[in-house]
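In this supplementary section we document a worked example of the pipeline. Step one takes a protein sequence of length 286 as its only input; no multiple sequence alignment statistics are reported here. Step two produces a three-dimensional model, which step three serialises into structure tokens for compact storage. The input and output of this example are shown verbatim.
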Amino acid sequence: MKGHALGWQMLICVVLLVVWQWGYDLHEMAPDFVPDLLDPYFVSRPSDIMKQFLILSCLKSKMGLWNGWFDGQFGACMTKYENNLWMAMWVTLKTTFFGFLAGVSSGFVLGLALGRSAKLSAVFQPFITAVNSIPRIALAPLIVLAFGIGETSKIVTSWIVVVFLVFFNTFEGARSVDEGFINTARLLGASEWKITRTVIIPSTMTWLFASLTPAISFALIGVIVGEFIGAERGIGRLIIESEARGEAAGMMVAVIVLMIVGVVLSALIWRLQAYLLRWQAHYQRN
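The serialised model returned by step three reads:
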């Protein structure tokens, strides 16, 4: 079954790449059937994107010659272009990781605290609702203004996008814990901290992990938006630079890299989720 699905996936990818590469050549013959979206000016072509990838990653020079590793050409290119693809990807991944980590940890703690305390929930719920109603991306310019164009502003932007997503999932998870389990633990002499550690947190983990896959994507989005507004390095800065030069291929390289990074990060989160929740029947079957 998996092999059958993989075959269809590969076929779909091949068809998409063929249409993308040569589809617009049929525009003059059938303009009503070939959309303007395939115009290479807007989305480039896979072959041009690959060429630009080799240039941005310092594997090739702008003259189309391979940069040698041992003769120092690759290193010279990396030094000359500080925002090359590898450095840009490293900076974006680093800030995404810290923003994601801060957002998940603070969102989980807040959600757990308010979910298990009716008094705290009643006091803070109006404020949380008010802040949550603000489009977080709209705060990005203010964050850059307050923290500068360095990595700190990108981490804060990523954090503010992630924290509420994790908070609300954890909050609902903490409130949905079966009171029978909690009462049984109390009858057995468990302290409140032990109940939290052995009953509430494990029961909330499913809700937490349900938010992690979208959270890692939102963390990456927050970083990219921050880099759009102002950054010294990063994938977002790479996109802005390519847009300023009118290079669709450069922008598509960055977009495809972001897509691959997002898929890999989501897969890692799913693997971690499957390991930590391996006691559930769903993950045992998979």
